[in-house]
Amino acid sequence: MNEAVSTKRVIPDRLGNRTSRLLASWEVLLFGVAVLIFIFNALASPYFLNAWNLSDATFNFTEKAMIAFAMAMLVISGEIDLSVAAIIALASTAMGAAAQIGIGTPGLVAIGLGVGLGCGAVNGLLVSGLRLPSIVVTIGTMSLFRGISYIVLGDQAYGKYPESFAFFGQGYVAWVLSFEFVLFGVLAVLFAILLHATNFGRQVFVIGNNEFAARFSGIPVERVKFILFLLTGLMSGVAAVCLTSRLGSTRPSIAQGWELEVVTMVVLGGVSILGGAGTIGGVVIAAFVMGLVTFGLGLLNVPGIVMSIFVGLLLIITIAVPIIVRRIREMR
Amino acid sequence: MMNGVTQVQDSPPRPAPLVETAPLLEMRGISQIFPGVKALDQVDIKLYPGQVTALIGENGAGKSTLVKILTGIYRPNEGEILVDGQPVVFSAAQAAIDAGVTAIHQETVLFDDLTVAENIFIGHAPRTRFGMIDWSAINKRSRDLLRALESDIDPTIRLRDLSIAQRHLVAIARALSVEARIVIMDEPTAALSRKEIDDLFRIIEGLKRQGKAILFISHKFDEVYEIAENFVVFRDGRAVGHGKLRDTSQHEIVRLMVGRDVKDVFPKTKVEIGAPVLQVQGFSHPTEFHNISFELRRGEILGIYGLIGAGRSELCQALFGVTRPSGGTLTLEGRPLQISSSGDAIRAGIVYVPEERGRHGLALPMPIFQNMSLPSLSRTSRGGFLKAANELALSRRYAERLDLRAAALSVPVGTLSGGNQQKVVIGKWLATQPKVIILDEPTKGIDIGSKAAVHGFISELASEGLSIIMVSSELPEILGMSDRVMVMREGLIAGMFGREQATAETLVRAATGNA
């Protein structure tokens, strides 16, 4: 200690320049992929480079991406929610039932968001209250929520939504900018701020990296996780409003399989499936990549089942690549 | 030379040597060098058939390294091992087993969901002609082994259904299932009750009669004197003395263990002890500790000494709000204090530097400055929004004060050495400007240089008026740093000693229960 005073060492804040580190990041790599797919699509189909077509293409990912933002935070904290698509089904069913008895648009939105929040609270209580593993809990609630939807609707569908309700999924704010796309942009900014610029976001990262250390540092781990499940439920409710409004009807099979696409988007965006690392920016780019690919495949008349194969492959590859790269690095 | 105490310093005259049998296993001039540390330095050991040799030493003296060499996990850099006078090389764990060496560890890895017989013969199960496991042979031989240990545990039941003591028997049976002649027992009594220890000692007597050579590692003197004939004392990787226990007093062994008058080596400055800061009254826990009362004054360092399992860490974690006590009250600066989470403790000004810093203290993949600022975020941020500049400034202040060696404040903590990681943990808690800091084994597993820095720093904090609780298993550290020492044994306070009364002997006596 005493010698240290005379030869005081200066520790720099950061190492090297930020540009070189940024260039090596996953997000930049992914952005390159997005540009390549964009160029490929433009060359492959004459209909692609059209403002209205491109605007239509954004509907492929906006609703899923809204959920993916919240899911990204949940995955970074070391948890997961596989019931998100089932929450959409339940929220949409509730809105449909309410619309049949003549409840107006503001009431429907409130019901959609409320059901989302309620479902998120159920998941959150089971995971952080009873300390059950989220993957099992949310597989259970996935069946539960959608099961309720099937009991209520059977093979029926709700379809009588008020005209003004159509705005959320079909309305445009200005020119080709749809309401959904604008909402997606606003939510991306809000979530980026929440995750990367607030104390709450920092706590999410610490929990994901070392839950023990988080607890030993005074972080209310259970409360943070509960809030994350609430957020994910709420965003599923938002997606339910948009999707129901866009389709104009509710069937119990609505948004079937979306949980997989949402998780794929999150992982493709560079969020570590083991928790502790990831960015909202990465998820935004991943949303565009997935949207462009599905749209491109659609333009080329590739059948839907092939798209599902594609999503599955994408999930496996994006989980495997970073892990394999790390192993190769460690071997050296 | 083989008889009586042999040590580097003046050795008193000893009775004439008795006729000795030839050693079963002998280690000559064994050295084990790790990067930057000489874990063992020219160690000689002899193990005799039918006798127990006790290996005594503090944590970090090199006992575990020796066990790992004897079981073929490490290959020593220097020296040779002889079995029956023939030099052998333990190139792998199997080679040690083939030479007849087996070890029972502190925590032997057993499998809860396998049967007793499967646990005993896992890895070396007898096979039938067709290469299938010979179940009847396994069960029969397991039953024989257990019977030799005076136990009638059914070899076909699952381990899950056994008591701790019975599991221990299974671990011993497992060790003996390989036709061992040399048995190493690494703190075998750590988790056992007195009755179970008596049973274990009966088994050891049986092994002695079978002519096996036993190396018994323990730091409980009463047990050592009860079961062992010979002893070897390790200090800082060297064998500093060996001989017959019946010719050697406990006092001599403690002196060999600790080595020097430790109070001179440590940089403890004289500090004016102030008013009471923290008062603990009747603190209890359902299983770990009972009726603990003490007070801590301003500027005071209270050392807590005790064996592993005495309840020291659990007490500290309860004070910090991580585990919930079943009873007792806290008073901080005269006001009653209710702590139900670590957040409460931090806000009240009580912080805890955990023993397992990687597991409990740090988010290793995250940058230094984010770890340092974590419990102080409410001060470095504004309105819930992070202010990186404030976090960096705060980290820099404590990094410089602690003489942290790091390439930058943004590198992951996991890239630092153990000593520097510990500085980050300490810095993180100092940044909260606490009143009471609890240090749990603050220098465990860190290099000598950082150790001295940490000790100097602790002393400095006390002189600035911070109250410090320091849990340590290292006698020199406890004796050198503490103003008072509280000794715990089996969850109770076994003694409270002022700096003048505290000696290695009094503390060890209190901790082991030897009046």
Characterise the protein shown here.
- The complex is a heterodimer of chains A (332) and B (515).
- With 332 residues, chain A is mostly helical.
- Chain A has one domain: ABC transporter involved in vitamin B12 uptake, BtuC, CATH 1.10.3470.
- Chain A has helices at 2-6, 18-23, 26-44, 51-58, 62-76, 84-100, 105-129, 134-153, 167-170, 179-197, 199-209, 211-216, 221-247, 258-268, 280-299, 304-331, and strands spanning 172-174, 177-178.
- In chain A, strands 1-2 form a two-stranded antiparallel ribbon.
- In chain A, a hairpin with a 2-residue loop joins strand 1 and strand 2 (177-178).
- Chain B folds into four domains: 1-6 and 16-100 and 183-259, P-loop containing nucleotide triphosphate hydrolases (Rossmann fold, 3-Layer(aba) Sandwich); 112-178, no CATH class; 261-349 and 436-444 and 467-515, P-loop containing nucleotide triphosphate hydrolases (Rossmann fold, 3-Layer(aba) Sandwich); 357-433, no CATH class.
- In chain B, the strands form four sheets. Chain B has a seven-stranded mixed sheet with strand order 1-11-10-4-9-8-7, sandwiched between helices. In chain B, strands 17-18-19-14-20-21 form a six-stranded mixed sheet, sandwiched between helices. In chain B, strands 3-2-5-6 form a four-stranded antiparallel sheet, with no helix packed on it.
- In chain B, a hairpin with a 2-residue loop joins strand 10 and strand 11 (238-244).
- Classes of the chains: A mainly alpha (332), B alpha/beta (515).
- The A-B interface holds A 1-2, 4, 8-9, 11-15, 197-202, 205-206, 209-210, 212-220, 276-277 and B 320, 322, 341-343, 345-347, 352, 354, 359-366, 369-370, 374-375, 377-378, 381, 384-386, 392, 396, 399-400, 403-411, 428, 453, 456-457, 460.
